[in-house]
Specification:
The complex is a heterodimer of chains A (321) and B (373). Chain A is mainly α. In chain A, 68% of the residues lie in helices and 2% in strands. Chain B has a domain of 222 residues. The longest helix of chain B is centred in the N-terminal third of the chain and has 30 residues. Classes of the chains: A mainly alpha (321), B mainly alpha (373).
Chain lengths: 321, 373
């Protein structure tokens, strides 16, 4: 593999890791507050459809983005009402939301556009265009650094940079602010937070809403930046890979970045090379596709350091026992 | 928990939940500009109006009975098995290997062999998540989701690289030999003088599914093991105190669950397709979740819910054929059923509980007043 091929693979790694990262950080907020969310997939899918549909109709990707985030937030509200207000099973609620998104998006797409459950292709201002960072073209000929800056760092859509900035922002909010401390406490020991006079329900709803916004960005990125329009089931299990990355990262922001880059890299490799030959032994492409899931099971099994979720995760909080 | 009579808990609450789910589905149909009453009529005639429709309804129902029972038995041990899809996928592989590579003399023997192979492969696919949950505390929901994806990759690899006949572009196995083809309901019912559609895929697997319902009821409510599974599901600490091993119960419940999901393949792979194709499960593993929730994890409930979903599936296909309503409407209905019977159960339950509490208090107050007079 020569230098340019490597750069291209890394470049697509960045692009493929972005939706994973946004969804992973979304799950991080929710699960740190004690609300399991296997509905990341559904929220992304809903956001992908509504962002693409509204961007197509209005011609503005920004209004599309807003619509996508709104759709994702609506799903968050359902999840919050079911799992916080009515103390229902968070996992079952997540499963239901994933199906709701899978069904509704195609149903509405078919009614609105009549193109077999997809939106028309987006062009021009209805898509997020790549941004060329300053001096990218002038520095292009500088050896090593020039191509890296031009190919890898510059030339992505704005949401890629937003996702990158979301990592330090998440770290700061969770570990350096009072809100973050309380949010983490509510996922470990909600009774203590309640005793301190802080609303458990309020904090958990706040976390679920942040999760909705981030999933909305992830879905909008998929439909308006990575591809040009919505197609049926376009999230293709990315919500679950993000969940896997979250476990892989043991619910920590910087590790989440690393995990998502790793899983993005695996996807980029699987896309570019069909079967890879390593020392005379052919690795089938299906193995590369399954690798994120296999790695997650290995991590969950605790053979490579134990992944311990927030202690109150999945448990509805009941004030009086 | 004796605030409500038993029938309210077992029948009224799920009934109201499903009713809400259907009402919202009706609103969805109105919202996409179609007539819900017309849609229901079409679904009923399409799915139940002919033996052809019934044949498809019962074919789908057979799938859902297997996956519904699989989720239900895991629920009894308070385990959430989302892996039915992957276990049924691997079960399909087991059934295909048994049908392709063993020269069966007659379909009855082939059916028994295929059942064992499907159950074995399904159980094996559930065994790893079960072991990791029991021994290492890895969350079974996450591991079974991961195993769904790994299972899909395994099947893809085997079909493309191993089972695909030479020269074929289609990622599917060869046709199963004639001797393994299962008799359809038409062939079963003809000798006793009942005319049944020849074209419908419902087959002898339906009887196996009904038998499984009965055996599961026997296991859960009439055996020591079933008692242990339910005790473990109600309270792990109490079960441990009573000398029940959590590792053993987790393993056994999940192995039964995986075996049931894997056995679904005798219906869709052996009975209908008669060869192994990619994505032969078509989401039936997930519908099992809705079926088990709606049926309150009781075999009779699972059976009724499976027939309802079979009706929805066949009716949905008819709708897609004759109107502009896409098949995905069924996924929406399925989602709403899971949401209202599962996650929003308390929303329906607590108002009903309050009504019954108020009525009982009123009765007690009346009884307390009477002697004084």
């Amino acid at each position: 593999m020569d230098f340019l091929t490597l750069l291209q693979v890394l470049d697509s790694t960045v692009r493929l890791a972005t939706p994973l990262l946004l969804a992973c950080l979304a799950g991080l907020f929710s699960e740190r507050a004690g609300i399991f969310d296997i509905g990341l997939e559904g929220k992304m899918l809903a956001a992908a459809f509504f962002s693409a549909a509204v961007a197509y109709v209005t011609g503005s990707v920004w209004i599309g983005l807003l619509a996508g985030v709104t759709a994702s937030l609506a799903f968050s509200v359902i999840h919050g009402v079911a799992s916080i207000t009515f103390r229902g099973n968070q996992l079952i609620s997540g499963v239901a939301l994933n199906f709701l998104a899978a069904g509704l998006t195609v149903l509405i797409a078919q009614t609105w556009f009549n193109q077999g459950g997809r939106t028309p292709s987006l062009t021009g201002n209805a898509r997020f265009e790549p941004i060329t960072l300053p001096f990218a073209e002038t520095l292009q000929n500088v050896p090593i650094f020039g191509p890296i800056y031009y190919e890898l760092i510059s030339g992505h859509s704005i949401l890629v940079y937003v996702a990158a900035l979301a990592v330090p922002a998440t770290w700061y909010i969770l570990f350096r602010t009072r809100f973050g401390l309380r949010l983490r406490a509510v996922g470990e020991n909600p009774a203590a937070v309640d005793t301190a006079g802080v609303s458990v329900v309020g904090l958990r709803f706040a976390a679920v809403m942040i999760c909705g916004v981030l999933c909305g960005l992830a879905g909008a990125y998929l439909a308006t930046s990575l591809s040009a329009g919505f197609v049926k089931d376009m999230t293709a299990g990315r919500g679950y890979i993000a969940l896997a990355a979250l476990i892989f990262a043991k619910w920590r922001p910087w590790y989440a970045l690393m995990a998502c880059l790793l899983f993005g890299f695996l996807e980029a490799i699987a896309n570019r090379f069909q079967n890879i030959e390593v020392i005379g032994f052919v690795i089938p492409v299906q193995f590369m596709q399954a690798l994120p899931y296999i790695l997650t099971v290995v991590i969950l099994a605790g053979f490579v350091g134990k992944a311990i979720p927030p202690r109150a995760g999945g448990e509805p909080y009941v004030k009086e026992r | 928990m004796d605030t409500m009579p038993k029938w309210v808990d077992a029948l009224l609450v799920p009934f109201i939940s499903v009713l809400i789910a259907f009402l919202i589905s009706g609103v969805v149909i109105v919202a996409i500009g179609e007539d819900p009453i017309e849609a229901v009529k079409l679904m009923v005639t399409g799915a139940l109006g002919s033996t052809y429709g019934w044949g498809f309804t019962l074919y789908y129902a057979t799938n859902f009975i297997f996956t519904g029972l699989a989720v239900a038995i895991a629920f009894h041990a308070r385990l959430f098995n989302i892996g039915g899809e992957g276990q049924a996928t691997l079960g399909g592989l087991g059934v295909a290997l048994a049908c392709l590579f063993i020269p069966w003399p007659h379909w009855t023997l082939a059916l028994i062999g295929a059942m064992l192979a499907g159950a074995l492969f399904g159980a094996a696919w559930a065994a790893i998540p079960a072991y990791l949950q029991a021994k290492r505390g890895s969350h079974i929901v996450i591991t079974t989701i991961m195993f769904n994806f790994i299972g899909a990759a395994v099947l893809n690899y085997v079909l493309v690289n191993q089972l695909r006949p030479a020269g074929s572009m289609d990622p599917a196995s060869a046709r199963f030999p004639e001797a393994t083809n299962l008799p359809t309901l038409h062939e079963l019912l003809a000798p006793i003088g009942i005319e049944f559609s020849k074209a419908a895929p419902a087959n002898v697997s339906l009887l196996i599914a009904l038998l499984s319902c009965f055996l599961l009821w026997l296991l859960v409510w009439r055996t020591r093991l079933g008692y242990e599974i339910r005790a473990f599901g109600h309270s792990e600490t109490a079960a441990v105190y009573a000398g029940i091993s959590p590792v053993r119960i987790t393993m056994i419940a999940m192995l039964i669950s995986g075996a049931l999901a894997g056995m679904m393949a005798i219906n869709n792979v052996m009975g209908e397709a008669e060869r192994l194709v990619l994505n032969s499960v078509e989401g039936a593993g997930f519908i099992g979740i809705a079926v088990a929730l709606m049926g309150r994890s009781h075999p009779v409930g699972v059976l009724l819910a499976a027939i309802l979903f079979g009706f929805l599936y066949q009716g949905g296909a008819e709708l897609a054929l004759w109107t502009d309503i896409p098949r995905e409407l069924i996924i929406v209905i399925q989602a709403l059923v899971i949401l209202f019977t599962g996650a929003l159960d308390n929303m329906v339950r607590s108002p009903i509980e309050k009504i019954f509490l108020a009525r009982r208090r009123a009765r007690q107050a009346a009884q307390a007043v009477e002697p004084a007079e």
